[in-house]
Design brief:
142 residues, 5-stranded antiparallel β-sheet
Length: 142
């Protein structure tokens, strides 16, 4: 497993094996327990931490566990999963904005930097996004 941190707000997990190892500090106990519980059961793809202390964990093709995140994010995940699309990445910005990537090039954004939103119009497949504290962002394509 590869574990990288984009900021205090977002961590990205990419598991390529059936069992997963991870390191963390200061995350909610329930989030840590869910990551540990996933060992051999599902592929963890993303965990994001919201500025209010909420978090979202994505696993497998369209599995998710959300705690204390905006209701709209949860409703959108439910709709996307029910439509059979893959949930790829969720990221929360320090200002309360968020971005959800799904399917080949699907995304839903709320209150993120305009430049980040415009960069998503790229023709390549979107795979990951992260936000920093001072309006920074990173977007990865495949």
């Amino acid at each position: 497993m590869r574990f990288a941190t984009g900021s205090l707000l977002l961590s990205f997990l990419a598991a390529s094996t059936a069992s997963a190892d991870f390191s963390s500090r200061g995350i909610p106990d329930e989030a840590s327990q869910e990551i540990s519980r996933a060992d051999g059961q599902r592929r963890l793809t993303c965990i994001a931490f919201a500025p209010n202390g909420g978090w979202s964990l994505l696993s497998g093709r369209n599995g998710y566990i959300n705690r204390n995140i905006p209701d709209e994010v949860h409703r959108q995940m439910e709709r996307i999963a029910n439509d059979g699309h893959e949930l790829k990445c969720i990221a929360f910005a320090p200002n309360g904005g968020w971005s959800l990537l799904y399917g080949r090039n699907g995304y839903i954004n709320r209150n993120i930097p305009d430049e980040a939103h415009l960069a998503m119009h790229h023709r390549r497949e979107l795979i990951w996004i992260a936000f920093g504290r001072n309006n920074e962002w990173s977007l990865f394509y495949e």
